[in-house]
Design goal:
Strand order of the largest sheet: 5-4-3-6-7-8
CATH class of the largest domain: Alpha Beta
Distance between the termini: 81 Å
CATH architecture of the largest domain: 3-Layer(aba) Sandwich
CATH topology of the largest domain: Rossmann fold
Number of domains: 2
Order of helices and strands: HHHHEEHEHHEEHEHEEHEE
Number of helices: 10
Helix content: 25-40%
Strand content: 15-25%
Low-confidence stretches: 31-36, 285-305
Number of strands: 10
Structural class: alpha/beta
Radius of gyration: 25 Å
Shape: globular
Largest sheet: 6 strands, mixed
Length: 305
């Protein structure tokens, strides 16, 4: 074959290879709803199945969760409480979307009826999902504010309800920022935890939080704990997973797909959809409202609940 022909064939093959790569990446972005989005470098390594997994709910299947519980009735008691403690709207979210109601998940941690149930379930899952399958010591750490409440309540109840957890776990609270005075520390825990450095012996941890949405809070704290304390987060327990927030989320914001969370076993007691199904709604009615404006009477229609 003449040199010119060989050169032409080689160029064509190279071009077709580039087209295949471009189409493959575009297919990944399309599956992620990210066409037209600036995709971060880490996202270029993801395949379609990894993106789909990051968008799916991390809630535990009901049968599997109930099997972990010491008190089987806790499942329905807490789910009903989560539906009862919502705050009916409508409300305007920071995204500009109108929300029918606010989840108010942290309210369940302060409710006299649901707080003990939520704590007991969290300890049940911690023991069954993580401690029973792995040896050694663990740190149970929650973020500001709901996760910190969960960690504190678990620390208070564990000695009474889950003595095995006390033998193997320390508990901590992670601030959003380091203190600006006093100890200047970000992690609140016993001294042998707060005095850790990046050179300390590795320590495994389970992260607690009341809700999960895009995964950004989880990712931020997973990276921080590893970088500053050599604490490896191997799991996370959430009260509620708002998986609907990730359904059409741009890939650049889909932190649940980040490689740093690949080995983090994140689970939730419930998904928002399960709570939504139990929300008691009052049928809205239309009411005519007349207001006087400078130009004359303006007639408006509003929803009244």
């Amino acid at each position: 074959m003449p040199p010119l022909a060989l050169h032409t064939v080689a160029c064509a093959a190279a071009a077709s290879g580039l087209v295949v790569i471009w189409l493959r990446r575009r297919q990944q972005k399309a599956a992620a709803g990210a066409i037209g989005d600036t995709v971060p470098e880490w996202a270029n390594t993801l395949n379609v199945s990894a993106i789909a997994a990051a968008r799916s709910s991390c809630r535990l299947v009901k049968g599997k969760l109930v099997d972990m519980l010491g008190c089987k009735d806790d499942y329905d008691r807490l789910l009903d409480a989560c539906a009862r403690n919502i705050k009916m709207g409508p409300f305007l979210a920071t995204s500009g979307l109108e929300l029918e109601y606010l989840l108010n998940a942290a309210t369940n941690l302060m409710d006299l009826h649901s707080a003990p149930v939520a704590t007991r379930m969290t300890l049940d899952v911690l023991q069954a999902r993580f401690l029973n399958s792995k040896g050694g010591k663990f740190l149970v750490v929650g973020g500001e504010v709901g996760g910190g409440i969960m960690a504190g309540q678990c620390a208070a109840m564990a000695e009474v309800s889950h003595p095995d957890v006390v033998k193997r776990c320390d508990f901590a609270y992670m601030r959003k920022k380091k203190k600006s005075s006093g100890t200047l520390q970000q992690l609140e825990a016993p001294n042998h935890i707060t005095q850790r450095t990046p050179q300390s012996e590795p320590l495994r941890a389970v992260w607690l939080d009341e809700t999960n949405s895009t995964g950004s809070e989880l990712l931020k704290n997973v990276e921080l704990l590893l970088r500053d304390y050599n604490i490896l987060v191997i799991g996370a327990i959430f009260l509620v997973d708002r998986s609907r927030d990730r359904t059409e989320l741009r890939l650049s914001m889909l932190r649940m797909a980040h490689p740093a969370l690949t080995d983090v076993d994140a689970v939730a007691l419930f998904d928002l959809e399960e709570i939504d199904a139990r929300v008691q709604r009052v049928q809205p009615r239309m009411k005519r409202e007349v207001s006087d404006v400078k130009q004359g009477a303006e007639t408006r229609w509003r929803w009244f609940w």
